[in-house]
Amino acid sequence: MATRDVEAGLLAHLSTNAEIADSRSFASSLGVPHKELEDVIKSLAAFRIVQSADITKETWVLTDEARGYAARGSPEVQLVAAIPPEGASKAALKEKLGDVVFDIGMKAAARNKWIGFQKGNKDLVLRMVEDTKDELQEQLRRLENGEGVANKVIDDLKKRKLVTKEKTIWYSLKKGPEFVLKRKTLATDVTREHLKSGDWKDLEFKDYNYGALGQPIPTGYVNPLLEVRESIQNIFIEMGFIEMPTNMFVESSFWNFDALFQPQQHPARDSHDTFFLKAPSTTTQLPNDYLEKVKQIHQSGGYGSKGYGYDWKRDEAEKNLLRTHTTAVSARMLYKIAQEKPFAPKRYYSIDRVFRNEAVDRTHLAEFHQIEGLICDYGLTLGDLKGVLEDFFSRLGMSQLRFKPAYNPYTEPSMEIFSYHDGLKKWVEIGNSGMFRPEMLLPMGLPEGVNVIAWGLSLERPTMILYGIDNIRDLFGPKVDFNLIKSSPMCRLGM
Ligand code: PHE
Questions:
Q1: Which of 257, 303, 250, 305 is nearest to 280 (CA)?
Q2: What is the overall mean pLDDT for the chain?
């Protein structure tokens, strides 16, 4: 029966009768499953065409095993029926009835004294009765048909795990305030046909739902990293900084370490910390004059410094690697500035990717982004560095800063930067900073008296703090969380 007909049958019945006392028997009078009628009832009730009241009943339903017995007889009766007049061996009966029916049947039939054995032969099962009455089957069939059985019977069946309790809901029905014999289908659109035939005059139209939300508009999305990167970029630009070219992911050890006065035995130069390239494993393009000066300063010092006093090797400086910090870019830029005469003060920044051979966890990736800023001018002091850091970070919303003495091979003094996190209610480390050492600046050819203040931080850290992300892998890399990214559409409407 089609849903439409079920609905018509129900409404017709209610128009001439005061009520339908029980939807279950009404469903069987229509010859449809109750579920189908239930759907119709729910839809009619939503439009107040009918009024329904729940009738909750707990009924006992047969288990799969019990349904088998209702159809084929109880195990004990099946067993007795399978025994021929001369008797049968246990093995033959088992084979015929299956393990379950055989085991249960043997026990119950023995209890009823329906079977017996000859003296001395426990294997041959004999039939002791002509006729067996199958009470169990009868009871199960009654239950199946929705007829009542005695409570004691239910208890027995429960014990044998042949019935389970099931809650069923059906309904009693009355006409609702909006009762109609036939539901009007409301028109949703005026079509060409409606206009041609003129029937639009008589149609009833469905109301517009002005409260409905529109379809989400498919747009591009910005990774939070890019969003934070842009705001940081804007801060640098507002503060008069110029971007450095950061396009070289592959760098030589020379620019990444040696130019920064980082000794060749420094642990960061180990392959456990740095990714070295296999091919091409070395670079030949290094500025020879400058390289000589770097060698000097490492080996024996100069400009008032003692140097490190070791045997500096060009081979080591030529090794290619994936840059471990953007300070390699700053070193190249400072060298370039030093070659431009006369010297002019500069403010530079960069935001780009760096690589470290690290174990990946919730807060570490083998590649991430660094933000770096530097100012070079005559007579800069640590006070200037603190001032510029306070200006920079307060523009990012971090106005409470603290500094802690630290060590970098290329800066002296060096300071770690901490910011008070209101949400976490503690000081969190947000970056590293310092004044580049004369051992780094003077071999480049920068004039005496020129100082460089600089700082660096990761892009991921502030982004995680700003977005409340606690796993860096949700933010960047192959496991990035797309739902997170989809929360920041590229184009915002109505803002
Ligand atoms: N290069 C440092 C780092 O990787 C950051 C830094 C930049 C420190 C500039 C001082 C000056 O953590």
A1: 250
A2: 91
CA–centroid distance, 386 to ligand 1, in Å, is: 15
pLDDT band at 456 (very low <50, low <70, confident <90, very high): very high
From the alpha carbon of 433, which atom of ligand 1 is closest? 10
From the alpha carbon of 324, which atom of ligand 1 is closest?
A: 4
Domain topology for 1-63+162-214: Ribosomal Protein S8; Chain: A, domain 1 (3.30.1370)
The CATH superfamily assigned to 227-487 is Bira Bifunctional Protein; Domain 2 (3.30.930.10)
pLDDT single digits (tens) 126-184: 998 888 889 899 999 988 887 878 888 889 899 888 999 888 889 999 999 999 998 88
Give the C-alpha separation, 402 to 420, whole Å: 8
Among the listed residues 179, 174, 175, 180, the one whose alpha carbon sits nearest the alpha carbon of residue 22? 174
Q: Which of 241, 325, 382 to mutate to test the pocket of ligand 1 (most atoms within 8 A of CB)?
A: 325
Task: Compute the distance between CA of residue 100 and CA of residue 108 in angstroms, rounded to an integer.
Answer: 12
- Distance from C-alpha of 19 to C-alpha of 15, rounded to nearest angstrom: 9
The closest-lying atom of ligand 1 relative to the alpha carbon of residue 372 is 7
Query: What 8-state DSSP symbol labels residue 4?
Result: H
CA distances from 76 to 89, 107, 214 (A): 16, 8, 66
What contacts 434, CB < 8 A, 6 or more positions away? 385, 406, 408, 410, 411, 412, 413, 414, 415, 453, 454, 455
The pairing of strands 320-322 and 250-252 is antiparallel
Helix (H) or strand (E) run with residue 235 in it: helix 224-238
3-class secondary structure, 164: strand
CA neighbours closer than 13 Å in the CB half-sphere of residue 182: 3
| E strand or H helix that includes residue 372 | strand 367-378
What is the location of CATH 3.30.930.10 in the chain? 227-487
The CATH number fitting domain 75-133, selected from 1.10.10, 1.10.260, 1.20.120, 2.60.40: 1.10.10
Q: What is the pLDDT of residues 237-291, one digit of tens each?
A: 999 999 999 999 999 999 999 999 999 999 889 988 999 999 999 998 999 999 9
Rounded Cα distance, 161 and 352, in Å = 69
Residue 258 CB contacts under 8 Å (≥ 6 apart), including other chains: 264, 294, 298, 312, 316, 317
Distance 306 CA to ligand 1 centre (A): 23
Q: Choose one of 274, 347, 372, 459 to mutate for the ligand 1 pocket test, by most ligand atoms within 8 angstroms of C-beta.
A: 372
Q: Where in the chain is the domain with CATH 1.10.10?
A: 75-133
Q: Which of 262, 432, 458, 460 to mutate to test ligand 1, by most ligand atoms within 8 A of the CB atom? A: 432
411 lines ligand 1 (CB under 6 A): yes
Comma-separated ranges of CATH 3.30.1370.240 domains in the chain: 1-63+162-214
